[in-house]
Amino acid sequence: MSSENASNAQTSAKEDDNQPQSSGSATEVEKEAVAAAPISVLFCDVCSFPVEYCEFGTSLTRCKEALQKSNPELFNKYYSEETLQSRMGTLSLEKQAKLEKDIAKAEKKAEKKADAAEKKKKESIVTIKRIERTKRKHVTAIHGLEAFDIQLKPVAKYFAQRFATGASVTKNAQGQDEIVVQGDVADDILEMIEEGKVKLLKGVPSDNVELVEDKKKKAAEEEE
Ligand SMILES: [Zn+2]
């Protein structure tokens, strides 16, 4: 009895197994499901990621080899020379965009800085001070030229030659650089700046230049 029962069970089990295979409609459904699935997700045999994410795993070389064998079409899609090049192109485009952004930023900053410098220049004053040392002796002190990007030493040298006198760059009482020229050349220097013909003094607007008479020093200097 028991062996009969067993054989019956086996038979019925075999019949159950055979049922889906013999049914044509079920096979069609399965085929459709199988055909639709790989397009959306195909998992890598090596790293088990979806194949397009193999690069994020640690076995890309083996993944690529496996995919090249199992699915050359997909392999070409992801790893062909062309694909890699177009990806590189995207990367450099991104870099370019960032670079352009950086440049624009730097330009804006420079512009701002230039504006600030321009504003500062407009507010800067050059003073040409006629200082009376004694009844007959004067010196002329020019202060503030550096705000207009004027190199003081060459200008001092130029004044010395031009006026055949002594001229030097020294620090004033406030610790600021100024050009001191021996003799009363204040009017000449003012004229020079107004005319704008002296290359070394170019860029100094005459509106920003003021002539100052310093007679207070006279008493102090005479006491020395
Ligand atoms: Zn992989």
From TrEMBL:
Lineage, top ranks: Eukaryota, Fungi, Dikarya, Basidiomycota, Agaricomycotina
GO CC annotations, alphabetized: cytoplasm; ribonucleoprotein complex; ribosome
Domain SUI1: 126-197
Protein name: Translation machinery-associated protein 22
Region (Disordered): 1-30
Family, similarity comment: Belongs to the DENR family.
Keywords associated with the record: Coiled coil, Cytoplasm, Ribonucleoprotein, Ribosomal protein
Primary residence: cytoplasm
UniProt-listed GO biological process terms: formation of translation preinitiation complex; translation reinitiation
InterPro entries for the chain: DENR/SUI1_TIF, DENR_C, DENR_eukaryotes, DENR_N, SUI1, SUI1_dom_sf
Coiled coil (UniProt feature): 96-134
Pfam families on file: DENR_N, SUI1
Organism: Schizopora paradoxa
TM ranges: none
